[in-house]
Amino acid sequence: MKAVVYDQYAPDDNYAKILKVKDIDDPKPKPDEVVFKLKAAALNYNDIWGMRGVPIAIPLPHVSGSDAAGDVVAVGEDVKNIKVGDRVVSHSNLSCRVCKLCTSGREFDCLNRQVWGFQTGPMWGAYSELVHLPEVNISKIPDGVTYDQAAAASMTILTSWHMLVGRAKITPGQTVLIMGGGSGVGSFGIQIAKLYNCTVIATASPDKLDKCKELGADYAVDHRKDDWQKEVYKITKEIAAKTGVTPGVDLTFDHIGQTHFNKQLTLLKYGGTLVSCGATTGYDAQIDLRHIFFKGINVLGSTQGTKAEMDDGLYWMGKGKIKAEIDSVYTFEQAAEAHTKMLQGKFFGKILMKPE
Predict the structure, then answer these.
(1) Does residue 183 lie in a domain region?
(2) Does 66 fall in a domain?
(3) Co-location of 132 and 228 in the same domain
(4) Enoyl reductase (ER) domain spans which residues (predicted)?
(5) Chain centroid, CA 350 distance in Å
(6) What are the tens digits of pLDDT across the range 212-270?
(7) Is the pLDDT of residue 85 over 90?
(8) Span 197-221, mean pLDDT?
(9) Backbone angles phi, psi at 34, to 5 degrees
(10) Residue 48, pLDDT score
(11) Same domain, yes or no: 171 and 293
(12) Tell me: the pLDDT tens digits for 282-306?
């Protein structure tokens, strides 16, 4: 089968130098595994981190990709609930499933956890014509959801659902700030918050603001402005004048990190919550602790989520209440171009790759 392979790192982000389409061995399913023919895979920032070899040195040679959707072509002898011909999508959180953390519903905190397609290998990821995963890391795609939509949703709807529902315990009627609403997780964050009947303020670059509103955001703010937080607070004062609530936001959804972190804290109401799943702009955030202790703010970390949470998101996609935003589609041969586009940030939603 063909796969996108690299056998050296690219700390200079020269993806064309390292990414090659090569023939590798077809996978044979282990007793608990499912093999499916790839229809679509989605890009994530962990693919870039892997190619840089930072923050961890991932196995080489490497096949990247953590989101994959396709048709099942083979199953192991111990597989119970998946059969040949099923339309399926990957759940990329590989955990032991037997430790105390896993069996208490915290598989995302498993000490032996790996992100498939990022930490796994060599040669085990989504960017290959045939994909193999344990049955516990496979979900059926609901009727009405395409392969492209399922691949685009896999990790991002899982992450967003876990952040807002699993960790932050979002409740109807809250004012929710979605940072980076034009990203994969941000676009789902907007829709999940609206599913919970919240008032949503999304931030994005100027070219993405209208699209955030099309997804359901009630307001959209350019977070590249130095005083973007003042505009957000002005909006919350308008909301307060109409509803009688206190100005500020109840919940802020962050994956931007260093450059915008403290300003989010200033916007939170007393008892408000910031939930973070990443730090695209850097991890060394400057924090004024007074906002945390004086206002009783909750700062929550979040990473990936449970398979059940991904299935919840897919369910609502099947009902037409949430959709995946797909920016563009590339072939394996165009892998370097696709990853360069993601690095530049000039996209809305998810970037996909297909074998051809």
Answers:
(1) yes
(2) yes
(3) no
(4) 17-353
(5) 9
(6) 999 999 999 999 999 999 999 999 999 999 999 999 999 999 999 999 999 999 999 99
(7) yes
(8) 97
(9) -120, 135
(10) 95
(11) yes
(12) 889 999 999 999 999 999 999 999 9
CA 205, 297, 162, 222: dihedral to nearest 10 degrees? -10
Pair of tokens at residue 340: 């360069």
Asked if 253 and 119 sit in the same domain, the reply is no
Q: Are residues 180 and 236 in the same domain?
A: yes
Question: Token pair of 300, please?
Answer: 């929550």
In a domain, 113, yes or no: yes
Q: Report the CATH number that the domain containing residue 111 is assigned in CATH.
A: 3.90.180.10
pLDDT for 296 equals 97
Looking at the structure of the chain, the number of domains it has is 2
Domain region containing 339: 2-140+325-354
Q: Are 34 and 15 in contact (CB under 8 A)?
A: no
Amino acid in the structure at residue 49: W
Output Rg (C-alpha) for the chain, integer angstroms: 20
The β-bridge partners of 3 are: 22, 128
Report the side by side order of strands in the sheet with 2-6: 20-23, 2-6, 62-63
Token pair recorded at residue 279: 């730090």
User: Average pLDDT of 26-40?
Assistant: 97
Is the domain of 204 the same as that of 294? yes
Torsion, Cα 282 61 149 251, to 10 degrees, reads -20
Find, among 21, 26, 23, the residue nearest to 4 by Cα: 21
Residues 183 and 213 in one domain: yes
The pLDDT assigned to 119 comes to 96
Looking up residue 253, the CATH number of its domain turns out to be 3.40.50.720
Q: Compute how many other C-beta atoms are within 10 angstroms of the C-beta atom of residue 285.
A: 18
d(CA 323, CA 314): 9
Q: Residue 307: which of 119, 180, 129, 166 has the closest Cα?
A: 166
The Cα 320–Cα 140 span in angstroms is 16
From CA 162, how far away is CA 139, in angstroms rounded? 17
Tell me whether residue 34 is in a domain: yes
354/40 Cα distance (integer angstroms): 5
Q: Computed from CA positions of residues 155, 298, 229, 322, in that sequence, does the dihedral angle turn out positive or negative?
A: positive
